[in-house]
């Protein structure tokens, strides 16, 4: 099963330190070697919103949400089940510290 793990911006941003980089590099290396990590990346704060209504499509430039609600990064993972995805999310949060992440199952054809 595939899951999308998204990290939201911290309420109080902190500068990353060497320990964070070292621990995150090891975590990413482990997940990549096991085949669990399919993709990862950071997201720009701006974006484009498309809203359709009938034949009309409205395009609006972002950003759209308060900074504390913005998704700033993601990881697409392969996990046996939701429990395993949550455990990987817990490990991620322990490395990066206080904040919020969202995990959603990805449905595909």
Automatic annotation (TrEMBL):
Where are its TM segments located?
none
Gene3D superfamilies in the record: Dimeric alpha+beta barrel (3.30.70.1060)
Residue ranges occupied by any YCII-related domain in the UniProt entry = 1-91
Spell out the coiled coil positions from the record. Answer: none
Q: Which InterPro entries match?
A: Dimeric_a/b-barrel (IPR011008), YCII (IPR005545)
- UniProt similarity note: Belongs to the YciI family.
- Which PANTHER family would you find in this protein's record? BLL0086 PROTEIN, BLL7171 PROTEIN-RELATED
- UniProt-recorded name of the protein: YCII-related domain-containing protein
